[in-house]
Amino acid sequence: MNQIIEQINPVLSAWNKRPLIISGPCSAETEEQILATAHRLAATGKVDMLRAGIWKPRTRPGQFEGVGTIGLPWLAKAKQQTGLPFTIEIATAKQVEDALSFGVDALWIGARTTVNPFSVQEIADALRGVNIPILIKNPINPDLDLWTGAVERVAKAGIKNIGLIHRGFSSYGNTAYRNAPMWHLAIEMKRRNPDMLFICDPSHICGRRDILLEISQKSIDLDYNGLMIESHIDPDNAWSDAMQQITPEVFGELIGKIIWRKENTDNTILLTSMEELRRQIDQLDDELMQILSERMKVADKIGIYKKENNITILQTIRWNEILQRGIVRCEQLGLSKDFIIKYFDAVHMESINHQNNVMNS
Ligand code: PEP
Ligand code: MN
What we know:
By secondary structure, the chain is an alpha/beta fold. The protein has helices at residues 2-7, 9-15, 31-44, 72-82, 93-101, 111-114, 117-127, 144-156, 183-192, 202-206, 212-221, 248-257, 268-308, 316-332, 337-359; strands at residues 20-24, 49-52, 86-90, 106-109, 134-137, 162-166, 197-200, 226-230. 53% of the residues lie in helices and 10% in strands.
C-alpha cells in the first residue's frame, strides 16, 4: 500500500489545479488505442489527467462491457510514456483493489453506482486507508440526497480529496440532451459543498458532439472547476458512446475556445459598480417579495368567497387565463416563456396552498 501512496503525489498537483481537465476514451478498447490517445492528448498540452472506462456498466446486456483488468497495464504504460496521471471508474471492491495495484491516480464512482448505497458503501470500505482522490458522479436520477449520501460514505472512509462530477440526469423520452443538465440541482450541490472540486462532464450531458463547447462554456461560466470530456482516436468507430466522442485534436481546439472565468476580481472600480448593482437587485427582490405577499392576501380573500359559496379552489379556465396573459406579456417584458410558466406555476401553487388554509380553517 505504501508504494501506491508514494506514486500518487503527481496527481495531487493535477488535482489541485483549476481548471482540472480530464480526457480520454469512454472505454479502453486496445493497448494501441490507449497509447495513441494518451500521446495525442498529451500533444495538445490541454489535458491534466487521462480517463478510460475499464469496466462499463451498460444499460442493456449484450453491449460492450469493457475489457476488464487487462486494460489496466495499458493505462499504467500510457502514464509512464506521457506523464499523464490516469483515472478510471470503479463499481466494486475488487475493481478498487485491481485499479490500485496498477497505480491508478484517482477513481470515480459512476452515475449508475452512486444510486446504490450498498455499492457505494462497499467501495468506501475498500478505500479505507487509501490516499487518492475520489470523484463522485451525480446519480442518474435527480436526487441530491443520494449524491450527498455517496459523498458522506466516501468521506467517512477517510478520503480527504473528494470531487463531484455533474453528468446530467436521466429523463424519459427524447430531449435535446442525453442527460438533462438540470443546472439548478448542480448549483445547489455546489452550494452545499463549496470547497469540493466540482467538474462538469459535458460528454454524458450532451450525448452528441455539436453542443459540447456550449455546455462546457456554460459550466465554466457557472464557476465549475474543471471538465471531463471523452475523446477517441476514431470517434465514429468507438465501442461505446461513439456519438459524443471527439478526437484528441478536436478536444484540444475545444479547450482552446473556452473563455476561462474566475469567480472574483481585484479590480476595485468594477467591484464598486457590481456592489451598487447588487444593492439594486436586493432592493428589487425585497419589492418583489412584498408584492407577492400582497398577491397572496388577495388570494386569501378569494378563498373566503370560495369557501362561503362552496366553489373549488382550482378553476382550470381561470388558471389558463392567467397563464395566457403571462405568456403574452412576458415577451414584451423580455422574459422567457419558459421562465414565466415556471414562475406562474410556483405562484399558483402558493396561492392554492393559501386558499387551502383558508378553506380548511
Ligand atoms: C462514463 O464516464 O463513461 C460513464 C459511464 O459515465 P456515467 O457514469 O456518467 O454514465
Ligand atoms: Mn461514456
